[in-house]
Amino acid sequence: MSGERVLVTGAGGFVGPHVVQALLAAGYRVRITQRNGTEPPPGVEAVVTGDFAAPIDWAPALAGVAHVVHLAGLAHAGPGLDEALYRQVNTHATLDLAQAAYRAGVGRFVFVSSIKALSGASDAPPLDEDAPPAPDDAYGRSKLAAEQGLAGIDLDWVALRPVLVYGPGVKANMAALVRLARLPLPLPLGGLTAPRSLLAVENLADAVLFALTPRCPARRAYALADPEPLSVAEMLAALRKGMGRAPGLVPAPAGWLRLAAGLVGRREAFDKLAGSLVARPEALLRAGWRPPLATRVGLERLGQRRDAI
């Protein structure tokens, strides 16, 4: 609703600036949390809360706030990180904020979780968002534990479970795909045809706006993805189309590519992109959410940008 103040955590990450700008464009007043007192974006309030791994007094940040959008957390960084650290940042800090939001009379608490809270599977049938969750790593377990903790708080909460997000400023595996698309060479990736769900960062921001409204039923988790899954070959073709180039894709056996990726220490990254992981946002679509950006169009736009990564 126009004029309502929304507290946004994690506004400094890849997703955060897109969410903040969408909120401002929709007429919300935005307050962001910061570890240190840096200059906030124009039109945005800021409050210093410190590190989420330490206790936080949320009362000043929540004063006068109608809703909370909780983006902050410890990112999925692969093996090697202590599971207790994931629990502290992704679970306990989330629930501490939610409890404080309840005490402050916050109307809607939107928690950006992860599809990893539902499943870590790849090369599997499309995920059923109403199936019993089965996360397979510390990151997914910490996100699921936060969702389960929210269910025990008398608060209007919504958990969004995004799949792999792409858009301007993207990092990690999607950034690597953009760099591949930019190579002035044919690529032996035409045989990578397994479907994979993606999520445009613009669609994520739009879903957050939808989740803040009464149209979105509260007290449940939603899979969040663009409706149309694409293969790696289709992703590269769309990126290169945006660059004004032909696909330039040559089929090669996936087993050979997996072996080559393993030889250069990129086996896990290859499996994440080349494997099949389809999660359709059926419940959000039934509730009335309509993503504004089609996947192929979003990838073409990303390919057009020189500052994409």
From TrEMBL:
Q: Which SUPFAM superfamilies does this one have? A: NAD(P)-binding Rossmann-fold domains (SSF51735)
InterPro entries, alphabetized:
Epimerase_deHydtase (IPR001509), Lipid_A_modif_metabolic_enz (IPR050177), NAD(P)-bd_dom_sf (IPR036291)
Pfam families, alphabetically? Epimerase
NAD-dependent epimerase/dehydratase domain ranges (all copies) = 6-214
Alphabetized PANTHER family for the sequence: BIFUNCTIONAL POLYMYXIN RESISTANCE PROTEIN ARNA (PTHR43245), BLL5923 PROTEIN (PTHR43245:SF58)
Descriptive protein name: NAD-dependent epimerase/dehydratase family protein
Q: Which source organism? A: Bosea massiliensis
